[in-house]
Amino acid sequence: MAVPDLPAPRTVRRGNNLDDVRRNNLAVVLNLAHVRGRLSRADVTRATGLNRSTVAGLVAELVELGLVEEQEPGMTHHAGRPSPIIVPREDVVAIAINPEVDAVTIGLVSLSGRVLKRIRYDTARVPTPEEVINIVAAVVAGMRGELDSSFRTVGVGVAVPGLVREIDGEVVAAPHLDWHGVPFSAMLSAALKLPVTTANDASTGLMAESTFGAGRGGRNHIYLNGGASGIGGGIAIDGHPLLGTSGFAGEFGHGLVNSNGLTCHCGRQGCLETEVRQAPLLAALDLSGNEVEKLDSTLLAQFSRPGGPEPKILELVHQQVGYLSESLCSIVNVFNPELIILGGFLGTLYATEPERMEEIVKAKAMTGPDADVRIVRAVLGLDLLLVGAAQLAFASVLADPASIAEPEALIS
User: Fold this and answer.
1) Structural domain harbouring 319
2) Over the chain, what is the mean pLDDT?
3) Is residue 2 part of a domain?
4) C-alpha separations of 241 from 4, 28, 257, 278 in Å
């Protein structure tokens, strides 16, 4: 399954093939509910230009399909009968998975984009594909009773820190995991008996932030994610993800920032992800690898102290912010984005010295006087990659809601 386009207003279709038109317009309405979370029939009418009776029929069909529900409206100051509120069903869910060098995180995410469950399984060593599948299968088996009785699972999405082939979800290379040529989607689908879609973790992060976070409403923006496995990115051009020929675009972690830097696993010297790393930050703060969730609050607390951070921490952060800023200058020069979103520990780095990072980019990047790029933190926090992975699983239903009623739609 292809990585879906970033959220944008879908086009209402009119024509002679009534079934195709209906299915397309069902997708239009469902996507509006998915992205906005809550909206009225009147909102749908205004957004689509469809007449009220057509909207009522489409919403009724989505309710019958079990994808949305209508709720009584709250207080309103408008004259006339208030329009019912349409919301995505919270019991329509996807299983989301993010394997990392030190843990496997499994989540249950609703069609509204809300993470209902989040389980982090720490590993003693870098997990093999088979170990990840065994961990996921065991966790899902433990939830099976609840999944069968209380939820409708549409599929599984996986966010992998590596190069993933778009056409079939094969992990071509995930160097930090030491995975090479792994048909991960097929392997996990066979174990769970559910459809599985796998993509690069930063690409899924871009989808999540574009749908529910800092990139909502944007058309040309860049997302950079920093984690235990290095740095990757996602690119949105005119509202569409730029994937490259094989889906490998966005490897910003391998841009040169220090000609005298460390040797990267890719064979080059001074790549961004060798000079800007999470591990030294954790070590400087006396945090272990499985305490990464404390990194943000602990580091920002250092910069909030009356006397400022400890000298060794200030020096380390100052150096990493400098290299990250240099990388952002190159990104701005190549893509001319309106917005750069920083996720993972990169967002934490930005929060320590935001003015300095913005000044470096403004001074060195080639932007016009009216084209200053904005830099922001990702807002979805620890849920970001789970929400992004879930978007992969929801893609087929969002593209064709009627397919959920067809048994073969949920068979891999």
Assistant:
1) 214-379
2) 89
3) no
4) 8, 19, 25, 26
Give the end of a domain, one of 61, 88, 115: 88
Beta bridge partners of 106: 97, 119
Average the pLDDT over 364-386 and give the result. 84
Q: How far apart are the C-alpha atoms of 109 and 254, rounded to whole Å?
A: 31
Cα 288 from Cα 185, distance rounded (Å): 31
Six token digits for residue 288: 């272990």
Name residues whose C-beta falls within 8 Å of residue 87's C-beta, 6 or more positions apart in sequence: 33, 37, 38, 68, 69, 70, 71, 112
Contacts of 190 (CB under 8 A, 6+ apart): 412
CA distances from 346 to 90, 233, 279, 368, 375 (A): 31, 11, 12, 26, 11
Q: Which helix (H) or strand (E) holds 227?
A: strand 221-227
- In tens, the pLDDT along 253-286 reads 999 999 898 998 888 999 999 999 999 999 999 9
221 CB contacts (<8 Å, ≥6 apart)?
210, 215, 236, 337, 338, 339, 340, 341
Which of the given ranges, 20-24, 100-104, 107-111, has the highest pLDDT on average? 107-111
Residues 303 and 373 in one domain: yes
Predicted structure pTM score: 0.85
Our CA angle for 18, 21, 24, nearest 5°, is 150
Is the pLDDT at 407 greater than 70, yes or no?
no
Measured in whole angstroms, the distance separating CA 319 from the mean position of its chain's CA atoms is 28
Asked if 261 and 275 count as a contact pair (C-beta separation under 8 A), the reply is yes
Token pair in block for residue 232 = 């990757």
